[in-house]
Design brief:
Elements: E1 3-14, H1 18-27, E2 35-39, E3 42-48, H2 54-61, E4 70-82, H3 83-90, E5 94-96, E6 100-103, E7 115-118, H4 131-142, H5 144-147, E8 151-155, H6 161-168, E9 173-178, H7 181-193, E10 200-204, E11 215-221, H8 224-237, E12 238-250, H9 254-263, E13 266-274, E14 277-284
Parallel strand pairs: 6-7, 8-9, 8-11, 9-10, 11-12
Antiparallel strand pairs: 1-3, 1-4, 2-3, 5-6, 12-14, 13-14
Length: 285
């Protein structure tokens, strides 16, 4: 990303909870924020200076009364920073269950595993360090026979770690969708650098792009509210006996996720958790 001026928007949430911060993030998804940080009582949001609109932000924040919390915000111009250099100093390689290594191009001399993924993300969009991404990778690895020669959809693909892993595991074709255009482009670039671009397609958009009955596997590492909102759509687009892998929510949210999935014609097939984050697998019945 090189040197670039960014705006840090600090939104104070009253009362603060991680759930309210997640709701706010979901409401801000249509804006070109590149990363978020939960720092009680604030949700801090980062955006390129030229893309920031205070008026548009005010409009969104004024419509949050329905959720039972109020907000106020300040915007601060950050000095020009070489974000790539910052990211390089913070990104360490990740190995998932001894089978999958996620690293950057500047990591050299690492021991190879069965699946090796090299990513060069922008300022954000995921490097595999987050518990939810780790668990989604682990779920894929645990279901390798189900992935081979199948059609996979990665919703909210970000840097395309999951899409690339599915392709390397032998998926016949993988689609990725992200609401952020920069993420969609970054995802394809990463697929190409990992030599799976012929089997990976990425698009900018939301669940409205999904096609009914087309996918054997759907990956949705998003957030609780989007999962609940789009569960029926996910179910319609998964073929019979296909799998839905979900994450991006807390263990205490699992009952409502399972209820929504059951209502949509999906049955519980297993779950995982790390530090109160949850990953649940469902099967289309």
């Amino acid at each position: 990303m090189n040197s670039q001026e960014y705006i840090e928007v600090s939104v104070k949430i009253d009362p603060y909870s991680d759930e309210n911060a997640e709701i706010l993030m979901a409401e801000l998804e249509e804006f070109p924020f590149e990363s978020f940080s939960m720092e009680q009582p604030y949700l801090k949001c980062y955006i390129q200076k030229d893309l920031y609109s205070q008026q548009d932000l005010k409009v969104v924040l004024s419509g949050l009364d329905q959720y039972g919390f109020t907000t106020s915000f300040t915007a601060t111009l950050l000095p020009a920073t070489n974000w790539n250099a910052v990211w390089e100093s913070q990104f360490t390689p990740i190995v998932v269950d001894g089978k999958c290594t996620i690293k950057a191009s500047f990591h050299k001399g690492l021991k190879r595993t069965r699946f090796n993924i090299t990513i060069d993300p922008k300022m954000a969009f995921g490097t595999g360090h987050h518990q939810t991404t780790y668990m989604m990778c682990r779920a894929l690895l645990a279901n390798e026979p189900e992935i081979r020669d199948k059609v996979v959809m990665d919703m909210g693909c970000g840097t395309a770690i999951l899409a690339i892993l599915a392709a390397k595991m032998g998926a016949r074709h993988v689609y990725g969708i992200d609401i952020d255009a920069v993420a969609a482009i970054s995802a394809y670039d990463n697929a190409r650098s990992n030599k799976v671009a012929k089997r990976v397609e990425t698009y900018c958009g939301d669940a409205s792009l999904l096609q009914a009955g087309k996918y054997d596997i759907l990956l949705a590492n998003i957030n609780r509210n989007i999962l609940l909102q789009d569960m029926a759509t996910y179910s319609r687009c998964i073929r019979k006996d296909g799998l839905l892998f979900t994450s991006g929510f807390y263990v205490e949210d699992m009952p409502m996720i399972c209820t929504a999935a059951k209502t949509a014609g999906l049955e519980y097939a297993g779950h995982d958790s790390i530090e109160n984050w949850c990953c649940v697998t469902f099967r289309k019945i």
